[in-house]
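Q: I have 626 residues here and want to know how they pack in 3D. Can you give me a structure?
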Amino acid sequence: MSIDTTRTFCRICEPSCGLVAHVEMGRLTQLTPDRDHPATKGFACHKGLAAVDLHHDPDRLDHPMLRDPDGTWRTTDWATALAHTASRLQSVIDTHGIDSVAAYVGNPTAFNALGQLHTGTLLRTLGVRRTFSSGTQDCANKFVASEAVFGSSNVHPIPDIAHTDLCVVIGENPRASQASFFSVPNVLGEMKRAAARGARFVFVNPRRIETPDKGIGDTLLIRPDTDVWFLASLLHRIDQLGGFDEGVCSRHGTHVAELRAFIAEYPAEVTAPVTGVSVEALHELAAAWVATPRASVHGSTGINMGRQGTLAYWLVHMLSFVTGRLDAVGGNLKSDGFYPNARSGAAVPEQMYVDTEFGRLRRGALPGTLMSHAILDSDEPIRAMIVVAGNPLLSIAGEDRLRKAFEQLELLVVIDIYPSATSEHAHVLLPSTDMYERDDLNIVNIGTSATRPQDQAVAGAAPTTRFADLVQAADYSLLESLTVDPHATSDGQDHRPRGRQHHGKHHRGPHRRRERDLAPPSNTQRTAECGPDTGTRSHPADSEPAQRRQRNDAAPGDQPRPGQGRRKPGFGRAQGDVHGFAVAHFADENHFGGLAHRGADPIGERIEVLPQFALIRSEEHTSELQ
């Protein structure tokens, strides 16, 4: 019996490893690594290869299902299910208005080209303006921080592992999973090769991870959700040792004195009781960083999940910038992935917030933690919800309250490949295809791919070329999302483009919880005043093409000139308080960093380090720090 082979790719995480599907009489029988794939070169992890079992899992949803009035489920055909759903949805809209309908979009849609397109089309056609995203639980902090620092939420400098001599990895375990926001096939293999030539890896983690047992680095144990104190202390000690690159800071930084004043409040002697990282361990790491010109840093999912993830990621950026490791061989480099996509994530941070009944929120997808409030406490409560490829009941904090909220819904439609804890409260269940049952296109490209052009730069290209290429994308990306803005006016008047959603981790089945290995200390973990940490970014407003091409040569602090419209935000001057972030300023919209043809430096014209960040301390925390 003949077996056909078809090239495909994995859609579980960002590297999107190339695979070969083995098909026997129309049935998928095996997945193997694609050794001819130009990027992944035959690597695939066990999760991707095991997806064939998921494909044939008998527990998958395979028919539409409707809940009868007595609470029992019955299978039905698609025509009946869709007509029933449309009728009930129309009834809710007729009675309560369109703002009574909301949606939650989960992580798998980020790896589903058609799913992204048609989910957005559905919600936009219905007029749904209240959309929640799993990204607000997982990685929104990174989009917010990078947008403020670099002017684009898609800029996330990655460690140059091929050439680094010291890499500090915070909140990641590459032994258990691929890296996040650092898309490199076989990241563990890359780290092993680097360690074999003498590179040192330090994994900052609340539990002793398996990677050091494989001969790669050491674990520096830290209490959960205290990364902000650790990073502030590390930067302070580095500064004490003379590790700030004064040339970089003077040429490209403003308010550096305020940054120094901020971190000076958190010496290791003060933060050790909070973080669990001893004074000696932190001082040793700081000394190693100063003594290692080719040092790099990577902050992963661990810091994203904390209550101060945005502030922590900002300090990660500061660690590479103020010490001269940004855009340096062996340090942190900008990577575009398969197209230079900084412009698709460009925005003016201070234009990205809006006042709502729940306070000042970031435009775009609503924070998942507000879902129960929007159902139970809103002046215009949600009455119907469409959940696509997600299990918010388990992946959003406050399960008991959210369960109560779901019980109040007049209609809950769940579209997924499996039943879930969320679907236990649904009225309609609609099965969806898995990754091997549909046509697809690999569109995951958040600018974090570790590609070989890094080596070309090391081999002789000017360092400026790496950052100077950042804004060479077209004015409009074909991958711009159609996400509906929940804050647009009811008459549809909204002058900003539609933001592309970024989705977080997707928790499928019930009872799958991730336990922390080290409980947080009481009265020591406090929030940070760093702007909303739970929002997702959205794109800046596009104006007419002629306006989009206008240059911005204003001096620092100048207001936009009349007639400029909305310039390329992030590639002109940022105005006002940007929630305390370092802000990259650009003299010309067509150049970031290197400004190669002008012969300028590779990092950028100015990076402003604003002083407004401050930890909010309760009385208990203040006394403990003292």
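Q: Anything worth noting?
A: The mean pLDDT is 74. The two ends are 75 Å apart (CA to CA).
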